[in-house]
Amino acid sequence: MTPPLITLEEHWYSTAVLDSFDNSMKEGIKQWPGALERLLDAGELRLREMDKGKVTLQVISHCAADNPSPEVCRAGNDQLANEVRKTEEASKRFAAFAVLPMAHPAAAAAELERTVKEHGFLGALVDHKSRKGYCDGIEYDDLWRKAQELDVPIYLHPSRPEDEIFRQAYAGNYSDRATSVIGGAMWGWHSEVGIHICRLHAAGVFDRFPKLKIIIGHFGEMIPFMLQRIIDQEVIMGQRERPFREVWDENIWITTSGAWSLDPMRCILSNTKIERILYSVDYPFTTNEAGLKWFEELEKSGLVTSEELDFIAYKNAENLLGIKAP
Question: What are the tens digits of pLDDT across the range 137-182?
């Protein structure tokens, strides 16, 4: 029997955030059948589709936000807070991650604190880079310090690379559409987040903030499959106070979002603590039903015990976020 399911990478848009930017990703979302309708809904449609996938509790977060300002983030988070407590059913089955102005680290830290303390948000899900680039600079210590102090996680979500880098790295002898896919959900997004984790490690972020909690999606954004290589090579760059193996075991959580194959799990289960693996869907860019089908395949596969299945389904999320599945 399927245990309760908690999902963590489940997207939504406030009108404040959606109206604040205009780019190719936004145009793509508009053309994706049904995506915008679902992204703007945090009511009956979302709940019905959660039921189809037996999702008990969904942690809602803003979709790709394209570097919103502090003012836009505040307005968007206030809208989200109203949505997750609009009805009795919503308050039982929805929780929230904040969107943060990542181009403004001090403001991001302040907004994280405000949303946690005023709205009861469980942490933040953010585009992993700002227009200024990766977040390994010392100026981001304000944010990491605040997250550690509040004891809440930051979910680093993929984002589109800067246009110049995007073209250099991914454009080739094929269509613009192929460039977008290779640089996006096929490969580029995920390798970029994996690189970001390596950069945070190299910059000593996890040495300065040993209790920092970071979540990454899509089966760990390629890191589990390169984990031993990372561990073997870090001595060349100069090892940190806390080696990457320790960081992986103590500071990083990974989710299953949108990658529906058992093959990655065979690798992950051999090098990642079961307590660090969390079920997620990546709604509405994949369906709750697809996630449930994969989860049922995992249950039947013999790769995990029933106790381990419960950890992945909901117990790890409960322990990390301090929540309870209804």
Answer: 999 999 999 999 999 999 999 987 667 777 888 899 999 889 888 8
pTM over 0.85: yes
Total Cβ atoms within 10 A of residue 37? 10
When the candidates are 3.40.1440.10, 3.30.70.20, 2.20.28.120, 3.20.20.140, the CATH number that belongs to 6-321 is: 3.20.20.140
- Assigned token pair, 132: 């200024």
The 10s digit of each residue's pLDDT in 239-264 is 789 999 999 999 999 999 999 999 99
Give CA–CA dist 69/100, Å, rounded. Answer: 8
Chain Cα centroid distance, residue 315: 18
Nearest-angstrom CA–CA distance, 51 and 45: 10
Domain ranges of the chain: 6-321
- Please say whether the beta carbons of 313 and 55 come within 8 A: no
CA angle at 62 for the pair 60 and 66, rounded to the nearest 5°? 165
Please report, as a single letter, which amino acid is at residue 34.
Answer: G
* Residue pLDDT, tens place only, 27-58: 878 787 888 999 999 999 999 999 999 999 99
| 3-state secondary structure at position 59 | strand
